[in-house]
């Protein structure tokens, strides 16, 4: 299992995923100007997901023989699992864990950042096995 994460492909996935995560994180702050935190997290995740698909197709899994439509379908399915992880972790940290720890500054930002990072490994395996095989 570890061999999947010791490769040039995984490093490029981390870079493109990091870019998409930055888009996700930054857009959540913008969306939060008009939406509640929960909705902003979901919309930001979708914005990051579109960015991630384009970058993954162009730079990470460029040799994939799978059709664009099939890749997009599986990409969306893998990301449904990841968005559930992101949302659950963000909400738990923002509303329960961080307040219980006495954290009062940057609570939403910390919660969302952790929520975005957690699904990196599960998403990579899902995209490698299904989205871009």
TrEMBL record:
Its main location: membrane. Keywords: Membrane, Transmembrane, Transmembrane helix. Belongs to the GtrA family. Residues 13-132 form the GtrA/DPMS transmembrane domain. It holds the Pfam family GtrA_DPMS_TM. It is a multi-pass membrane protein. This is Putative flippase GtrA (Transmembrane translocase of bactoprenol-linked glucose). The keyword Glycosyltransferase does not apply. The lineage of its organism: Bacteria, Pseudomonadati, Pseudomonadota, Betaproteobacteria, Burkholderiales. The chain crosses the membrane at residues 12-31, 37-60, 72-98, 110-127. PANTHER family: PROPHAGE BACTOPRENOL-LINKED GLUCOSE TRANSLOCASE HOMOLOG. The keyword Manganese does not apply. It is found in: Membrane. GO terms for cellular component: plasma membrane. GO terms for biological process: polysaccharide biosynthetic process.
